[in-house]
Amino acid sequence: MKKTIIIVDDHILFAKSLNGLIKTYDDFEVLEIFKNGQELVDHFNGGKPGPDIVLLDIKMPVKDGLETMEWLKENYPEQKALALSMEHDENYIIKMIKNGCRGYLLKDIEPDEFLYALQSVINSGYYYSDEVSEAMIKGDPEKKFENLTRRELEFLNHACSEMTYKEVAGEMNLSPKTIDGYRESLFEKLEVKSRIGLVLFAIKNDLYQV
Amino acid sequence: MKKTIIIVDDHILFAKSLNGLIKTYDDFEVLEIFKNGQELVDHFNGGKPGPDIVLLDIKMPVKDGLETMEWLKENYPEQKALALSMEHDENYIIKMIKNGCRGYLLKDIEPDEFLYALQSVINSGYYYSDEVSEAMIKGDPEKKFENLTRRELEFLNHACSEMTYKEVAGEMNLSPKTIDGYRESLFEKLEVKSRIGLVLFAIKNDLYQV
DNA sequence: GTAAAAAAGGGGAAAAACACCCTTTTTACA
DNA sequence: TGTAAAAAGGGTGTTTTTCCCCTTTTTTAC
């Protein structure tokens, strides 16, 4: 069965083109297109089921992406959502991620990468683009993870699962030995000594949404 | 250095006797005695440092234990607190624990057990009395952990640390093989297959305070 | 007062995680 | 265009975790 998507964006033209693009994907279909966050809230309040992924624009009239994401976190914390925006604004990115957003895409993303992002959210639960990890690293006020690389952040998320490292390696298309390297590097940087330590760090610092 | 305690209880006589009892302990001392939660809030708002443990009565005028615990969770989530009450009320117990309270003592507890509870909160971060685990099991609306025993709950908390199982066994004064048994039993009951799964379950269900 | 359940303990083997050593390739960037 | 950092990969061994079987003792419930 196809995975469902709801697009929330006031740029109708963009939303409809995106719908067209998604129609070319075998595994995804668009359920609804809403012009602002309030319409999404109404959808949920009407008792209708959420989609597999909500694509959320940031700048919108009535109820913008940030407010909508907050509402989702409060009311439907399990709902997966991806931010999809023109704004390459660190603060937005961080706020969205902290509110449980599973990734942040720029609207000039390549269709291939866009598809990969959708699949990644379905399979791994999130999609960290370079923009996201950079923003997280730069925007970290306490410099707790300033030294973490993009791949390390990605691995850290995968470590918060019941997969073995070998399975994580498969998921990330890497050799188990490479994963070994990330683990050791993170152990040192985060001053932990076990995978449990990694998981606790990730959760404490909102790098992984429980 | 002695570990510090603040008592919050409107029963002055009880609070002062408790202070007397604590004076006989080598490792603990009472910093302050407050008559209600508001006085504790004022203490914090005055910029004064929190104690190692707050002992919190439930039924109090002005600001009761539940409200105070909520305030602590919101403003000083790291602050360790123990509920200390006459009420053997399941709903109170669960609400307090969900708000990050590290344990729930009945006021008719034996002095020895009371000291053990204090030490346990300092060393392990919490103290689950029989009352607490029973209430948690009985009061669980979703029956997610109805079958968990007291010891399993206790072990589950210890599993959320970087200790090896051998170290956990030492902490709980049990043979590593017994710990093995708890683990296997929990894997089956919680439908997880690794220690990571245990940690994630505990955190998702507020059994472990991150 | 007995029966069941929980708690405690165990043997032995396989899988996973961890540690510590290392090399090569790719990328960023000054 | 050189160099540093990141990414990727490797060897070998130890420790920890996991699994599947089992027994005895203690607690709890009826």
Automatic annotation (TrEMBL), chains A, B:
Residue numbers bearing the 4-aspartylphosphate modification: D57
SMART domains, per database record: HTH_LUXR (SM00421), REC (SM00448)
HTH luxR-type domain: residues covered: 141-206
SUPFAM superfamilies hit by this protein: C-terminal effector domain of the bipartite response regulators, CheY-like
The UniProt record lists the keyword Cell cycle: no
Coiled-coil regions listed: none
Keywords from the named record: DNA-binding, Phosphoprotein, Transcription, Transcription regulation
Domain Response regulatory: 4-122
Name under which the protein is recorded: Response regulator transcription factor
Source species: Autumnicola patrickiae
Organismal lineage: Bacteria, Pseudomonadati, Bacteroidota, Flavobacteriia, Flavobacteriales
